[in-house]
Amino acid sequence: MAQAQPAYVERPRRRGRRAIVVLVVLLLLLVGILVVADRVAVGVAERAITDQVRQEVAKQGAQSAPPEVEVGGFPFLNQVLDGRYERISIVLREVRGSVQGDAVSLPTLDIDARDVTASLDTLRSGQGEVVAKTVNGTATISYDSLAALLDRPGLKLSEQGGKLAVTAPVDVLGQQLTVTGTADVAVGEQGKVSLRFNDLNAEGLPDVPLARTLLNNYARSISVDVPLPELPFQLTVREVRPTPDGLAVTADATDVPLNSAG
Questions:
Q1: Dihedrals φ, ψ of 212, to 5°?
Q2: What value does the mean pLDDT of the chain take?
Q3: What parts of the sequence cross the membrane (predicted)?
């Protein structure tokens, strides 16, 4: 007759299970601690870089609201130890030049810095350089601010079919006409935005040479080079294109210091 197995035979299995559970719990706690430490390090680095970026923006003669900095990449502690960061995003709001003049302000300038080198010593002490291999900046100039710069009553700008379109009331030989047309948009000298209105028409325009001359004169009067505020971080404007929200400006630079080296 078979005998029942003693109860103590099951104990080693139970102890083994408990050990596995304890090990899993400890591993989860360790992972949690590392994640928290990683995020804390991110916060410390972002504050240090924010302070240094603020000083550099002021040094370069630009004005803006305090920069908003976000350090990308995970795990972050590895980047700290290596002194090299995958990506640093910087947002500057209300960017203006030190001498405003007729330059339009940029409501938001988004800066994407890649392959950034910054030693732990530099972040701790503020001494040394924070250098980005590549920097790309994007901003949008509102159509309202452009229209205000052109200073023509009733003039409205918008995007139509990928082009900059204009609508404006114009007095031609005593008649109030609505002028419509498009402009060629390009990057001009010294990073200015070049607007050239070459194709304006008005329904009901009198069929006389003087009327066409007056319309052409109006087109020339609103064809201007729009000055931009001096962009920080050596950014050079490469492209300007109309979008539904305004003129999108793209700029870039390479091997750029993001701080003032101590």
A1: -65, -35
A2: 79
A3: 20-37
Helix (H) / strand (E) containing 174: none
Overall size of the chain counted in residues? 262
The gap between the terminal CA atoms of the chain, to the nearest Å, is 89
Task: Say how far apart CA 237 and CA 137 lie, in whole Å.
Answer: 9
Q: What tens digit of pLDDT does each residue of 85-98 get? A: 888 888 888 887 64
* CB-CB neighbours of 262 under 10 Å: 11
DSSP 8-class letter at 98: S
166 exposure class (CB count in 10 Å sphere: 0-12, 13-18, 19+): buried
Contact 140, 243 (CB under 8 A): yes
CB 118 within 8 A of CB 49: yes
Q: Please give the Cα distance from 185 to 164 (Å, whole number).
A: 7
What are the pLDDT digits (tens) for 132-180? 899 999 999 999 988 988 889 999 999 999 999 999 999 988 889 999 9
The contacts of residue 151 (CB under 8 Å, 6+ apart) are none
What integer pLDDT is reported at residue 67 of this predicted model? 82
DSSP β-bridge partners for residue 72: 87
